[in-house]
């Protein structure tokens, strides 16, 4: 099979799985198994909308069903914007493209991983963390081939079909990772630049206990870039953040937690040991 990343069913879930929630009138997040996708657009039959990320392998049908409830049947998104190309953010992409035929946008540095040209580093099961990290070799890291209209995000920082939003390059977790930010109300879609659940821990992922964390450890190869990316996002003072994993965080809680993550990045985010840090950390 060509796209291993999306053909493998990963039997992992959380108590929030399948229960979507509106966080701002035009922002809705849909957790499925252990990852979130985001719908941007005012709800209503026939309204324009954009999908951010494409979920776990084989979650396409669930994403389609949820979107149809919010935007009506036969109303494809104007585009799919990818924060990055990890298997848990592109898993449903083939079903979605087949159904909707929408263009797909990603940062130009992420394109080789979406065109079958370059694989991500293998996940690190030895990293400090927990059970989810230990079973991470089960996660596919191979590049996939997006069979569709794949494009680079515009160089001017705008986000197609998302007026008032900017994409921000937030590498570290992957080279071409982006976050999306709307200055008018401080809404942030952070992907895996930081997350609000301890993603290495099977138990915490299941309960979705809120806890600010750096990017998922078992898949993050460049910790210094990851640190700079978190600093960049914290300096925007977002009012609400939807992250790739965990529940949205907002207001004072978000401000304090982001500040803490910046100040204690070594402690909170960077693992004490693991193949992506060995020999690199003091
Ligand atoms: Zn990721
Ligand atoms: Zn992820």
How many domains, as an integer? 1
Number of helical segments? 10
Radius of gyration from the alpha-carbon trace, in angstroms: 17 Å
The pLDDT mean sits at 92
Distance between the termini: 43 Å
Q: Quick one: overall form?
A: globular
What does this structure look like?
It is a single chain. The protein is 25% helix and 17% strand. It contains 10 helices and 12 strands. The protein has helices at 4-7, 60-71, 87-90, 93-100, 111-114, 131-134, 202-207, 223-234, 251-263, 265-268, and strands at 21-24, 27-32, 35-40, 50-52, 80-81, 104-106, 150-152, 165-169, 178-182, 187-191, 240-243, 249-250. The strands form 2 sheets. Strands 1-2-3-4-5-6-7 form a 7-stranded mixed β-sheet, covered by helices on one side. A 5-stranded mixed β-sheet has the order 8-9-10-11-12. Strand 1 and strand 2 form a beta hairpin. Helix 2 packs across helix 4 and helix 8 (223-234) packs antiparallel against helix 9. Bound molecules: zinc ion (ZN) (2 copies). The site of one zinc ion has 6 residues, from loops.
């Amino acid at each position: 099979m060509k796209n291993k990343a999306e053909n493998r069913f990963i039997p992992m879930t959380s108590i929030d799985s399948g229960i979507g929630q509106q966080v701002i009138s035009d922002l809705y997040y849909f957790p499925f198994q252990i990852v979130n996708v985001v719908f941007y657009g005012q709800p209503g039959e026939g309204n324009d909308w954009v999908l951010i990320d494409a979920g776990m392998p084989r979650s396409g049908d669930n994403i389609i069903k949820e979107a149809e409830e919010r935007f009506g049947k036969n109303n494809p998104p104007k585009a799919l914007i990818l924060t990055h190309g990890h298997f848990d953010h592109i898993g449903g992409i083939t079903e979605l493209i087949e159904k909707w035929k929408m263009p797909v946008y990603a940062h130009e540095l992420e394109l080789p991983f979406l065109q079958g040209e370059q694989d991500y580093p293998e996940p690190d099961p030895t990293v400090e963390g927990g059970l989810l990290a230990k079973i991470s070799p089960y996660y596919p890291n191979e590049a996939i081939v997006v069979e569709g209209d794949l494009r680079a995000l515009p160089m001017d920082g705008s986000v197609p079909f998302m007026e008032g939003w900017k994409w921000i390059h937030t590498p570290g977790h992957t080279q071409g990772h982006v976050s999306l930010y709307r200055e008018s109300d401080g809404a942030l879609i952070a992907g895996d630049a930081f997350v609000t659940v301890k993603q290495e821990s099977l138990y915490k992922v299941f309960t979705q206990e809120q806890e600010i964390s750096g990017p998922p450890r078992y898949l993050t190869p460049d910790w210094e870039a990851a640190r700079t990316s978190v600093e960049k996002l914290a300096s925007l003072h977002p009012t609400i953040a939807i992250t790739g994993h965990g529940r949205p965080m907002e207001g004072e809680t978000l401000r304090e937690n982001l500040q803490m993550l910046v100040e204690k990045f070594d402690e909170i985010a960077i693992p004490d040991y693991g193949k992506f840090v060995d020999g690199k950390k003091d």
